[in-house]
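User: I'm preparing a small set of examples for a lab meeting where we compare how different chains pack in three dimensions. I only have the primary sequence for this one, and I'd like the structure in C-alpha cell form so I can line it up with the others. Please keep the answer compact; I'll paste it straight into my notes.
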Amino acid sequence: MNRRSLAAAALTALAAAALLSWAFAPRPIEVDLARADRGRFEETIDEDGRTRLRDRYLVSAPLAGRLARPTLREGDPIARDTVVALLAPTLSPMLDERTLRGQQARVAAAEAVVLRADAHVERMQVGLQQARNEVIRTEQLAQRGFVAPTKLEADRLAVSAAQKDLDAAEQDRHAAGHDLEQARAALVSVQRGGGPLPFELRSPIEGRVLKVVQASEGVVALGAPLLELGDTRRLEVLAELLTTDALRTRPGDRVSIERWGGPAPLEGVVRRIEPAAFTKVSALGIEEQRVNVLIDLTSPFEAWQALGDGFRVSVRIVVLAVDDAVRVPVSAVFPLPRADATGDGPAAPRWAVFTVRDGLVRQVPVETGGRNGVHAWLRSGLEPGETVVVYPPPALRDGARAKARG
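Assistant: Understood. Below is the C-alpha cell output for the 406-residue chain.
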C-alpha cells in the first residue's frame, strides 16, 4: 500500500471517529428558565365564603291579637322607630290573670336583657381602650425599630375591629331597650283591658326588611314572629376553614375578597376565629373538621353596596407577608432526597433548585420560608438575578449541560 492510500485510510478513520464521537456525545438538555428576584411575598389561605348580616332582628307579637295586613315587603327600606305592623288586641284573652302574669314576666325578662346589653357595651368600651393603648405602645416601639410594620398594621386593624364590636353592642342595647318599651306598653294595655286603638310595632333599627313572616291579616299568638329586619350596611363574611388552616390565622390578618361580582377585590380583616369546630362532608365524601372564621369588610360601603345577605364570595387570607423577599417560581423548587439533605436539625436545607451557570446545571440547596401558588420565598441559598430551571425534567442532574428551550 503506498503512502497516499495510507493517508486516505487514516483520514477516513479520523472522520469516522469524529462522527461517532459527535453522534454519541451528550446533548444539552432543553429546559425552561427563570430568574430569581426580590419583591413582596404573600402566603395565603384561599377558601369560599358567604356574606351574612352581623345582626338580625325578629319583630314578634308582644301580645295576642289581630294583625293588620302588613304593607312592607322584602327589601323595603325602613327608618328607626318606623311603624312596621299594627296589632289590634283581642280583649277576652288579655283580661285574664294568666296573660297579665305573662306580660309581667316578659317585662322582667326584657329588663334583664337591657342590663346584659349595658354590661356588653361597657366590656366593648374596655376592649376598645385596650386596643388603642396597644397601638400607642406599638407605634412607640416601631419608631425605635423594635417591631415589624406588619405588627403595627395588625394593631391598627384591631382598633377598627374593636370599634365595630362596640357599635354592634350599642345597636344591641338600643334593640333591647326597644323590646323593653314594647313589653311595658303591652303590659299597660293588658292592665287597662285593651282599648280601641291598635298597638303599634316599631322598628328597632334603620335598615331593610329581610323577610315578611306573616304577610296576611289574621289573629296571631303571643310571641309569633312577624317580620325579620336587618341593616345591610353591616355585613360580614363567614368562611369555613380547615382546622389546620385556622391555626395559622390570627385576628387582624388582612383579607382579599374576590369573585363577588364586582370589578375589583374588596378588602377585609379577620375579626374572630370561633373556638369550636364542626364536621363537614366534602364533595368527595371526606369528613373534614372546619372552623368558622368571621371577616369584617373594610372597603367603603359604596364599593360593595350591591352585596346582600347570603352572597357567595371567595376569600384570600394573608397569613404571611414579606416585603423584600428573594423569590423564585414555585415550580423551580423541589424536595431533596433524604440522602442529599445536609444537616440534621429542623433548619437544615430540605429543598433545592437547579441553577444554570455557563451552560452547566448546578444543584443548590436552599432554605424556604414559604410558598404560594406562584412564588417560593427563599431565606438562603440563592441570590437575586440567578437563573433557575422551572419544571426540571427527571433526566436533569447536577453537572449536566442545559440550554434554554427555544
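A couple of notes for your slides: The mean pLDDT is 83. The CA atoms of residues 36 and 345 lie 26 Å apart.

User: Perfect, thanks.
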